[in-house]
Amino acid sequence: MRFTFIMAFVATAVGCGKTPPASFRLNMVQATKTAAPESGMEKPWSSWANDRQKQVATILEAMYGTPDAPVALAETGLDLAKLQLAAGPVRSDIVGRKNGLYREHCAHCHGISGDGMGPTAAFLNPYPRDYRPGKYKFKSTWRDARPARDDLTRVLHDGVPGSSMPSFALLPPAKVDALVEYVRYLSMRGETELALYTYAEQELGVDDTMPTTKEFLVDEILTPIVEKWQGAEEARIPIAAVPTTLDFTKPGDDPANHESVARGRALFHGDGGCVKCHGVTALGDGQANDYDDWNKVIVEWGKEVAGGLGASQDDAGRAAWLHAATDVIEGDALRPRPIPPRNLRLGLYRGGRRPIDLYRRLYTGINGAPMPGVGPSGPGGKGSVADAEIWHIVNYIRSLPYEFDGELGADRPMVAKDRL
Amino acid sequence: MAEFSSRGYFALPGPKGQNCGERNLQRSSNFRQSLRLPQFGSVSVAIMRISAYNWTHIVACLLVGVTAMLLSFGALVTTYEAAMAVPDWPATYGHNMFLFPWDEWFHGPWDLFLEHGHRLLGAVTGMVTLCLAAVAWRSSVRPAVRWLAVAAVALVVIQGVLGGARVLLDDKTVAKVHACTGPLFFAVAVAIATLSRRSAEVVAGGATRLPVALLVAAYLQLVAGAQLRHLDATVDPATFRGLVALHILGAVAVTVLSVVSAVVLGEDGSTAARRWSKGIVAFVIVQFLLGCGAWVANWGVPSSILPEGWQLAEPLRARSVGNALVVTGHVVLGMLILGASVVLAIEAGAIGRAAGVREGRASERAFA
Ligand code: HEM
Ligand code: HEM
After folding, report:
1. Which of A75, A370, A396, B209 shows its CA 20 to 30 Å from the CA of A184?
2. pTM given for the model
């Protein structure tokens, strides 16, 4: 009783009262983009769109729970115990086991919903990863495949050099494990949401409501998503044997590597097609106005909306939709930013600097980024460069920071330049 | 705390280790006599000696020290997000706070060590505050000191309850308020320690009100900092940008005010005011660097507002001890700057009149 009184006093003193519990944000970009008004709508567009968003939110909550109380359907194969360690507000018990790891370590950048729009995101370049489309860059699997568990573990352990993504090597493995599971959870949730919008756009009539049967939600929507994640472990790209003509233990300018580096340089300027973006100098000064997939969605939709706004406005539903779209682009998305091709003379590799890391980057390209791969796009395919030859490009790339290049007018190793 | 200086009278280490009692004692022949007497040794003289201690000042200095430790502990609790390491209050895992097994606390998990330690220190601080109030009420005739001591008691109680509420409600808004009242309490403790010195009478009406502006700016800056520090992950990027702008603006204000104060007081301030104002400038410079470090440690390099290519070559290690020290250092130094501004404002005479210092002269004599 006395406590209630004290608390009431405090709550009044604080004025604003309690901060509301965290909730998942809907993917407003996709929700609005896929909700173009159709003919025969009886309600005004905004309340119609609102209804549909509520249906999606309800389904998502039933399937995935809330940020404080996650749900793991058996079909997802997610480990609820790990999710509970990572979810919720930060707290720890008497033996020091800490919950709320995601909010403690990640949410201020990646956002509660994993939308890459945490409070600090706008200050970062590149923006933190938006997990919701399920796309990841630095992995050992085929370009279109999901990352394997150990790919995510490696990203957490090493961080992403040259971006703001820190290394979590100081966390015990059990915590990293829980965080990886939570990232997968947020991705599956985000992909489910996307699939629901796509379904609504393509299959649902104006007056239809979203089906909520198990057949639909689990078999039709969830299963394809989960299969991709579970197939990731088997979707690794093959690694060709390292040719005997190169030696990664020696620097690129060592005579033992001359031949290999020359071969790599030829491929870089020739079949590899690297100069188109990275430039003949490899300073990353080629084509530089492209966007990665996350930003491209906003850019392209933004153009569409801007074009639509210019056209005639006699359809009230359409006008409402376009105005809502403008608000969403300005308020619910980060300002799109182009992704420059990397300056390869800095020796800064986001996906890791080991030869095997670079091999993987070149083989599949960088998923979600414009950078294409030179290996085949799937099992049994044929790439623009033979698998074993990729090692020579890797060797050349690794020699670039130390290459003396008269053409650049620089007579010192480029690596010292621009490094913080 | 008190010690004999080579010159045979007491030198009392003050809030920042300077001799609070000394300068004044030199001036007051009354005091010098009463303090020298004990060297001849007699019971009645010994009693006189005890009463000659400026107890209010001694206890206030003790309070400043304990509070500085408490603030540092609290800041560590926040840095390590250990606030919820003990879910109940006022008990600790069902134990009476003071009876919680010492061993389990000291050798227990780091988070528990911090949170329970903060509570224990909070309790010690509360008791010292009560002692201070009692002593001040009994022996200090300077009304400002008395009333500040009462305010300190009120603040420490409120602060304790806020700490409990933060845990019981697990609420970030309460945490922010708790983070802002803590330093307020510290400021009051420092004010008492400064005003209870016997030398306070030398402070005449100041030539400048700048130190008051500095004091206010330092506090507002702290409030802005607390919004960044107790950031809720649901805050959207635009709001965050606003909070950052506020804190940067505050940093500029604090820097400008501290420099201008130092320049103005450097010309016509007392020796103490000159020293303190210069010290604050040094603090602020370090604070600026620590602030940038805290940013990077928490949120990475803000590469979108920096020139192309400004990035760390190696990823930062989240949760390293270095990070924690930089971040916590920024917070603690922020509070020390606030405390130092209080001393400066008093030394420069900027708030002396309001605090009734001038009137204190006669009563001090009565006290002696
Ligand atoms: C009585 C004097 C007290 C003072 C002066 C004080 C001061 C502080 C300060 C300065 C902080 C750091 C805020 C920051 O770094 O932003 C803090 C944090 C904290 N204090 Fe206290 N505190 C006191 C008592 C208590 C008590 C009795 C509790 C009881 C539970 C408590 C619980 C906490 C908690 C949980 C935090 C961490 C807040 C967070 O990270 O969200 N404090 N305190
Ligand atoms: C020079 C005057 C400055 C003062 C007096 C000051 C003071 C403070 C204080 C007292 C806090 C903690 C608030 C609390 O929780 O109680 C804080 C937090 C913070 N300040 Fe400053 N600050 C200054 C400049 C800066 C600058 C220049 C930056 C960087 C651009 C900065 C970045 C930060 C950050 C990132 C935090 C949050 C720390 C956290 O999240 O743990 N500050 N500041």
Report:
1. A370
2. 0.89
